[in-house]
Amino acid sequence: MAVVDRNGPIADKWERLADDAPVPGGTSVIVSFARLKSEHNSLFSAAGGVGVEIPGDVNLDELEPFLPRLGVVVVRMANMRDGRAFSVGRLLRERYGYGNDMRAVGDFIPDQVLFLLRCGFTSFEVKDNFPIDSLKHSVAAYSVWYQRATDRAAAVAELRQNTPGGGNS
Amino acid sequence: MYIYDQFDHTITRERVAEFSQQVVRRLIGELSEDQFRPLRLMNGLYLQLHAYMLRVAVPYGTLSSKQLHKLADIAKKYDRDYAHFTTRQNLQYNWIKLEQVPDLLAELASVEMHANQTSGNCIRNVTADQFAGVAGDEVEDPRIISEVIRQWSTFHPEFSFLPRKFKFALTGAAKDRAAIQFHDIGIQIVKNDAGEIGYAIYVGGGMGRTPVVAPLIKPFVARSELLSYLEACLRVYNLHGRRDNMYKARIKILVRDLGPAEYARQVEEMWPMTRAAGVDVPASEVARIEAFFVPPVYEKIAEPVASFVAAKAKSSAFARWVETNVHPHKAAGYGAVTISLKPIGGIPGDASSAQMHAIADLADAYSLGEVRVTHVQNVVLPNVKQTDLFAVWQKLGEIGFADGNIGLVTDIIACPGLDYCSLANARSIPVAQKLSTWFGDLDRQHNIGPLQIKISGCINACGHHHAGHIGILGVDKAGVEFYQITLGGAGDEKASIGQLLGPGFAGEDIVGAVDKVVNTYLDLRQSPAETFIEAYRRVGPTPFKESLYGRR
Predict the structure, then answer these.
(1) In angstroms, rounded to a whole number, what is the distance separating the alpha carbons of residues B532 and B549?
(2) pLDDT in tens, A94-119
(3) Which of B86, B96, B168, B471 is the one with CA 20 to 30 A from A92?
(4) In Å, how far is B246's CA from the nearest CA of chain A?
(5) For chain B, what are the domain ranges?
(6) What is the enclosing helix (H) or strand (E) of B381?
(7) Residue A156 resides in a domain
(8) Which band of pLDDT confidence, cut at 50, 70 and 90, is reported for residue B255?
């Protein structure tokens, strides 16, 4: 497994912690949502950092109380067609104001990373053979967008207003 | 019509480059077929029984003559010299080679066209009333907001991997010619008591194996808030629509399971967030788009137009064609011509490149360069002067498209069926051809009156059989094609779902069965003015069942 952002591989401090494994002091760990709910007090006091992995159908209201103290939220896509992650990402950013690292994991392909970035994701857990050249190509595929999203990139409608003579120059 | 600016061109060009690169990665094996499938589908590329099929988007069914010429050229260069107009106002090529698709897309882009989102689990090409802008009964030209929705939904970062496909349809008129209540979201443009224009939102209609007439979810959304409302509708669906079973994944199932009131409540709850996200476009942008749909300057023509009246008096065949194929125009002295792509015994919706060029020429000569595609698989010249109608009719005769059968029994919708489609259980096209030939006599057609036959080759219902006055559904029965008959469907403002009459019929018996249904109607109608659907609604299925299956 490797972790990438829009530019390619990045160093990753997070370790996965199985539900029955003891908490290693001072280490940054990613736990299941069930474990976070039952052990949040000991986790936040012992671990160096706490992250959680959630599925696409999670009840985000239940996650909300923990969000300010989480260093990473990992959203799992069941497969590449599982598009709930895109909405979950937007909700976490725009409704719940989550500001730290948000990571996608699952069988998505490089072509989907651009949309995940637009929906607020910042890092991606991928297999070691994930095609990095295609990733770099894919995230640069578009220079303008028709609609606003979490990234707040200016949409075409706004660019048109700021372009002399609209877009018809 | 809408004309691209630099931003539209940039996005379209970048899309061609992106998909071209995806094709290369598929050809060299970096992408597996499973990974490539959703990508190619989002570009309208299907793997059919014999070859790739490419579905080109015709946004809200509006084409320029220049675009139609290009589509004809592509049919000749990349396909077998013909194309097929579809029930989503799009156009399909059936014999495409994967490695040629990038070049084909570049050619489309040169005339401001594309194949974006004509398939896949995303927001599909938006459809609208084919008489948009020329119908007299219109509150607002639906193409304005259709274009706003086209842009918003194009490469939407959140809604490109929905549980299932998602279709919008719009009507600006009280008379629904776009079958909006059979769509995932149907929008009717309305005026409120204060005289303001807004949008009534119907959600959760559809055909397929669970046909549903969409309930009204929100009676009035202001123009300034439409996109954020739609985004809330889609987000609730994307989060909660079923993903465990593709046959229960459409939004109609979610709305049915939650109940329309609860679904509407969840949308309202989501709406403040989508509003705050700034997705609604400024009024200046809608005004910019609206300017492309300002009506052309029509000549001031007093009716009646003497030459038109004289031509009708001289040729009863022409007069009959006018009766069925010319729709009233809001400008006096004009008409909107529906060109029937349903020649007797022909394949519904097919046109050769020569026919497409000829139609484009007619649009230039007689219809201000504009063409529309209808969801009934016909083509419209929206702006023809009445004094030119006779010449148009004659020239249509030269290309075999002068049939005066619009709305009559031979104006049949048929899906591609087992002749092309890998999903089909049975052939549709030959059934349409046999029915068309059987009922071909024009006197008989006029005697029967308005009657819509719609044929689907499988339960996915691409041929809209649920909405047919007479619907025909092809099924596979132990390896043999059988055809079930439904009666009483309608896709207009009195939308209804056809009811199954009884056991299916073998391919050689289906024409006889439909003929019995039609004769039963002719026998029981109260007068020639009572149409098939009116008579069916009055008497119900029993007399038709008895004529087909005998008394029980």
Answers:
(1) 20
(2) 999 999 999 999 999 999 999 999 99
(3) B168
(4) 12
(5) 6-110, 134-291, 306-398, 413-549
(6) strand B379-385
(7) no
(8) very high
Does position A168 have pLDDT exceeding 80, yes or no?
A: no
Report the CATH number that the domain containing residue A112 is assigned in CATH: 3.20.20.70
By the CB < 8 Å criterion, does A129 face chain B?
Answer: no
Q: Give the nearest partner residue to A82 out of B157, B227, B243, using CB atoms.
A: B243
Answer whether A166 touches B (CB < 8 Å). Answer: yes
What superfamily would CATH give domain B413-549?
A: Sulfite Reductase Hemoprotein, domain 1 (3.30.413.10)
B306-398 is a CATH 3.40.50.300 domain: no
Q: Does the fold of domain B413-549 match that of domain B6-110?
A: no
What are the E-state strand segments in B155-266? 168-171, 185-191, 197-203, 216-222
B38–A80 C-beta distance less than 8 A: yes
The answer to whether residue A151 is domain-embedded is: no
A94 lies in some domain: yes
| CA dist list (Å): A113 to A11, A104, A138, A156 | 18, 9, 8, 21
- CB-nearest to B6 from A78, A95, A169 is A169
- Give the whole-number percent of chain A exceeding pLDDT 70: 96
One-letter amino acid of B370 = E
Inter-chain touch B157–A134, beta carbons under 8 Å? no
Look at B157 and A149 and tell me if their CB atoms are within 8 Å: yes
Strands B453-456 and B470-477: parallel
**Cβ–Cβ contact A38 with B under 8 A:** no
State the smallest CA–CA distance between residue A76 and chain B in angstroms.
14
Q: Give pLDDT, residue A165.
A: 65
* B154 within 8 A of B11, measured Cβ to Cβ: yes
Least Cα separation, residue A26 to chain B (angstroms)? 36
Domain tally, chain A: 1
Cβ–Cβ contact A69 with B under 8 A: no
pLDDT at position A167, please? 67
Considering only CB atoms, which residues of chain B are within 8 Å of chain A?
5-8, 10-11, 14, 17-18, 21-22, 25, 30-31, 35, 38-39, 121, 151-152, 154-163, 227, 235, 238-239, 243, 273, 276-279, 281-282, 284-285, 288
Distance from C-alpha of B224 to C-alpha of A50, rounded to nearest angstrom: 42
Q: For residue B292, list chain A residues with Cβ-Cβ distance below 8 A.
A: none
Distance from CA of A8 to the nearest CA of B (A): 18
Nearest CB to A148 within list B22, B38, B278: B278
Q: Which residue has the tokens 């239940």?
A: A62
What's the pLDDT score for residue B49? 80
Q: Pick from B238, B259, B241: which is nearest to B250 by CA?
A: B241
* Residue pair B104/B96 in contact by the 8 Å Cβ criterion: yes
Whole-number pLDDT of residue B535? 98
* Interface size between A and B, measured as CB pairs under 8 A: 124
Q: Which CATH number fits domain B6-110: 3.90.480.20, 3.10.20.70, 3.40.1190.10, 3.40.630.30?
A: 3.90.480.20
The verdict on a CB contact (< 8 Å) between B279 and A144 is: no
Q: Helix, strand, coil: what percent of chain B each, to 5? A: 40, 20, 40
Q: pLDDT tens digits, residue range B315-343? A: 999 999 999 999 999 999 999 999 999 99
**Amino acid A166: pLDDT:** 63
Provide DSSP, B446-489.
Answer: HHH-S--EEEESSTT-TT-GGGSSEEEEEEEETTEEEEEEEE--
Q: Whole domain around residue A108: which residue ranges?
A: 2-141
The half-sphere exposure of B502 on its side-chain side, counting CA atoms within 13 A, is 17
Q: Is the pTM of this model over 0.90?
A: yes
Q: Does A145 touch chain B (CB under 8 A)?
A: yes
The answer to whether residue A160 sits within a structural domain is no
pLDDT in tens, B93-137: 999 999 899 999 999 999 999 999 999 999 999 999 999 999 989
pLDDT of B449-475, one tens digit each?
999 999 999 999 999 999 999 999 999
- CATH number, domain B134-291: 3.30.413.10
Using a CB-CB cut-off of 8 Å, the residues of chain B touching A94 are 273, 276-277
In chain A, residues 90-109 whose CB comes closer than 8 Å to chain B? 90-91, 94-95, 109
